[in-house]
Structure formats: structure tokens, C-alpha cells
Write a structure and sequence with these properties.
With 728 residues, the chain is an alpha+beta fold. The N terminus is likely disordered.
Length: 728
Amino acid sequence: MNLKTVLGGCIGIASIMLVGCGGGESDPSSSNPPPSSNPPASSGVDNVTLDGTAAKGIINGGNVMAEELDASGTVIAGIGSTTTAADGSYTLTIDNDYNGGPIKVTISADENTQMKCDVPSGCGMRTDDIADSDTVIDFSEWYKPVNLTMMALVAEAVANDTISVSITPYTHLAARRAMAAPSLTPAEVSDANSRVSNLLGAGGINILNTQPLDITDAMALDGADDKRIAYAALSAAIAVLADTSGGSPDINAALETLWGSFTDGTIVADDSEMATDDSTISLQEIVNGATSVFTQMNIADTSNTLTSLQETIDAITGGGSVTPDPGPGTGDTALEKVKTFVGDVRTWGTVIEEETRVKGDAFATQVDLAATAADASVSTMAGPAIRNAIVAVFRRLTHTTATELNDDAYKTGEQGDPQFESGTIAHSGGVVTITDGVIDGVTINLSVQLPDNESTVSSSLTAIISSATLRSASTDITINSGAINATLVTPYFVDYVAVDTGTADQPDVSGGSINLNAELTQKQDDLGAELASPVTFAGTLSTTLVNAVKDETTGELSWLTPATLSMMGNISDIDGNSFNASLTANISNADSFTPVTGPGADSDIMLENADNWLVGTIGLNFELQLDGLPKASINISGDRTAFETGTATVTIIYGVREIVIAGAFTDEVSTGSVTITNQDRVVMNIADADFNALTGDLEYNGQIYGSIDTLDNGLTKITYTDGSFETL
């Protein structure tokens, strides 16, 4: 495993596009005047458009009002109004008498406003006049909120701006923070929006620009941007925590509790064991609420947002709090943000790689040594040992009452194969326990629960590993928990004697699930020498399986389609270096997908083709923490749009810096346009992704601040609207 390649490869995508030197030069041929970022108060600002989504869940027919505020937070004038569509979206054109100050965008409900219930357990009892088969407001049903007022604040706008402004519980939280400042300035608004965005994960969700979607609609989720899905789930979490004693959720009261939990700019990580649990909202409660929504929709979070937040929570103990900081350049003017963005892009392939190379290479070497040795250890020692242990478990469930593993009843291999030298085995209450079983230098302790022998299982066949440890001089393996569950079509008679002899019938299975939590510590290299810093591999696997396919000839199970897949792992040493990776996937056509057999292939090899392929989204996340350096994070999310095509987004975070690269791909090459953005949502649009002759522009809030052209000498030139340029 080459960690530098993993990190540097994605960084290289940005470096290929823009790398070089120069900047700050004057271009006498440029006559474009710089846009004003602070127009005189006496002049109106023309052609400003706000658009976005109002969600807590999706709000249909909500009243959207835009108002300009002065430094005290007092409304100067209403400057526009509209209503939301059925999907919560709105577009609002600001009146021409707007003078450039902070803008408050508020959504409120009247007797015609409806909200989608996005709480898995339901949204209380129905008190409105919407027709329903019962009096309960179930998940995904519309209801009329008793009261609702949410807002968002925009720092300022200049002529011709098009600004995305979502209205959610988190924009409301940021607005409350900004309006609590001694003076409501654009800098305070930007600071508050940036802090709350970072509360939801560094480099993750921009609360204003990210538009949540209808989390209850499977069709809306299919192929949607994973950040939008995560944002919708996090917004739904506030309704999960709302009081429903008055009928429907009291959203306003929940918003007030959220603000009361963040008034000092911090939020408690987890207060489940504290006296404040009922009066405050902790970050853990938000994560739990969002997780319940993902579970309800039977999808995994491919954005890695909830996993990252959970890691933040787990790192804080004793009732500690999370204090989000604002992003870099929060108070800069629009043109300053654009120039800073270009400078950041240039540094990805140079400064950051130089910082990580030496330590990254050393850690990678250590991991490679450990991985090679661990692979050999598992295949030659741990693997055979655990297989022999499982055979012993089956025999304990069938025909013997012996307790010593070196008894003849527990011989588990051919004569001359390694056998248990010592240890005990017991069976009680459906649980088989192996204690200090020693085989071929490996000590095994195992506790596993299986159905009783000669019993009939009606609905599901389940094997549970409560705990297991394998210890040897070179390798330690711990299974913290494990469960394999098969959903049965018809009842199944369990016969472990037949299992042991290979004559057992196969159960008729329609689906199932696998969950595993395990870790491995490698202490020696493959030559038996002690590693300078032992390396630990730890991870979890979780998948749900559906749509069983049976072999037409034998009738045996040959395929189960994973509807969701989640794999998370960590590699660390004792020197403070660590590498995290996670893979999440959602297969939207899992219930209907039928694999096909390729021409000339064996009957058990299942293939896709151009007419029959798995549809889904995937998220792959890497985090590298080297001792003494900022954390580096790479998130790759993709959406398969055809058999050999799709879209992909790469998000790279190093410390407080963020770059997002989005594009399309075919089977072999990237095609079409590519966009690169950062934490301020400055956008670089590349019109042609062949990387040979780059053309495009730089924009912020829908307004162009620079153009990108390739010169005859092969250099790339960026010309800014203030007359300066850079050659790259």
C-alpha cells in the first residue's frame, strides 16, 4: 500500500490543471472594471437573485420573505417575496431598492403551507384537515405545521449576483448567532455561516449553498449528490428531537433549543449521561437522528459526513464540547476569495505533497511490512486455526459432551494436520465457548451462538460471534462482534451432523445481512523480526443482501445483491500515525437486478452487460493523520449513469483548506466539463477536460471574476476583472 500515491494521486488532479508560477502582474490589454463588493449605500443594487430550498422536511407553499437589515439587525425594508414549490425550492428576485446590506431570508407557514414528515417514527397526531387513513402523521406524509419560522442570512450582494440560499435549521442557527453580535456586519454573517457549516464537518456541507432534497423520496435520492442527502438527514434530525405532545412537531421550540445549545459558539459532543440531556441538543443527538433517517431509507451515507462527525464526538470525553472555527478567508471580498482559491489550487501538488512525503513514505513502508506479514500469518496460521475452531463448534453442537479440545472427538483435520493441543469447549444456552484453545502456536478464545441442533428455524438463520481472539507471537486478531443473518423463504431444519459431513440441504434464502467488527495487530515482519512500531488494522463491515438468485440446474443459491454496503477501517501505529478508509455504496436497483452469465463463462460467474447493470452511488473516503501534521482527507463519490459512464466528485481537505473536483467519466477516460470549487464555493469551470488546452472561467455567486485561456506558448493565463493576471 503506497499512501503517498493515494494522497498524491488525487492532489495531482488539481495540480495538472493549474501548476506553475507568476501572479499579480498588470495586463494593460484588460479593460474589465472590477465588480464592486460594497456599493454606496445611496445606490440600488440591480439584478440580484436568490434561489435555494427550504427544508425541515421539505416545505411546500411556504412564504419566503427577503429583508435588508441595518447594523443593529433592524429591518430597513422588505426587498422581495415568493412561495416555495412542492419540492421546497424557490427563486426570488431582489427589488432594485436593495442597498447592499445583509439580507435576511425568512420562511413562514400559513394555513396552506405543508411540510413533509421526515421523522422515521412519525410526526405525531394529525390535527389538520389533510385526508388520511388514520390520525397518525407517518414518515413521508404531508402535514400542516402549527408554527414555523426559519431564516437564513446573506452577508451582502452585488449587482448581478445569483446566490444560493437554503433555509434550514442550521442556517437559522447561524442567523441567530450573527444577529446576537454587537453589530451585524457582513463579516459577522460570513463568520457565523462558516462556523455552523464547519459544525457539520470540516470541508463538508456549506449550509447556504448546499440544497437539501426530499429525504423521504427514494427516486429523489437515486443518483443525487451525497452532500445534499446528508444535509437533508441532518435537517430531519431536528424534527426527530422536537416535541410532538401538541400534535405535530413543535419545530420552532426545537430551533430555540438548538440555539440555546450553541449560544456560546460551542455544542456539547454527547450529553446522554448528563443532567442537561433533556434541555439541550448535543451533536450526538443530531448524528443519531440523521442516522435513523438513513436507516429508514435503507441507504448508506456515501458522503462520510456522519462517520466523520461520530469520530469527532468519540474523540471528546467527559461532557466536552465541539467548537467550530470559521474557514479561511471568511471575511475577504469576492475577488480576494477568487485569487486565494487560485493560489490554493497551485499549492496542492507542491507544498502539501512536500509536507507529507517523508513521513508518509515512512509510514507506508511500515504498513507494507505489516500487511505482508499479516497476510502470511492469516493464511498460514490464523485462518486454519479459526476454521478448525468452527468445526469444533459444530461437533460440540451435535454428538459429544467432551470438554477438552485435544479429545479425539475434536480432531478437525487429516492425520498429521495441526490439532488442538489444549483448551476447553462448552455449550450452554445455545452459546458455544472455546477457552484458551491452543493450536499450532495460536491461542483461541471464542464465543459463538448458533441455532440448536435438530431445531427448525422459521424466519431467519443467524450466527452471532459475541467475541473472539486469536493470539500468536506475530499477530493478534480480535473480533469484537459479528453477525450473519439469512432471511428464510421457508422454515429450515438444522442438522449439524449433515453440515459436518457435507450432506446438509441448503436453506431457501431470500436475503440477509452481514455485520463484522474486528482488528488485527501485526507485531513482527514476515521474517519474524519485531516491527519498530507495531501496526494495527481495525475495521467494520456491514451489508444488507436482497434478491436471491438460484442456479437453474442445482437449485443452489448462487447470488445475493448487496442493497447497501459499508466498510470502514483504520491503520495506525504507536508513533501517532494513522490512516482511515471507508467505502459506502447504495445499489438502487438491488431488488430487481438479475445477474447474467457471460458467453463461455462458468455457470457460477455472474456478469453485467450493457442491458443489465447495477445502478448506484458509491463513496470512498481516506484520511491520513501523520504525527505533527494536519489531517489530510480525500472523499471520492460517484454515481453510475450507464454501463460504462458516470459522474465523480473528489473532495480534498488539508487542515482548513478544501478543493472539490467534479467531472464525468467513461470506461477509460474523463470527458466533458470539470468544475473545481473550494470551501467558499468559488468555482473554476473548465470547458474541456482534455487538459491540453484549458479554457474556462472563475466565478463566485454566479458572477464571473476571471477567465482562463491557454496561450500559444502552452502556458495557462488567468485574467481577473481588476486587470491583473497570472500565467501558470
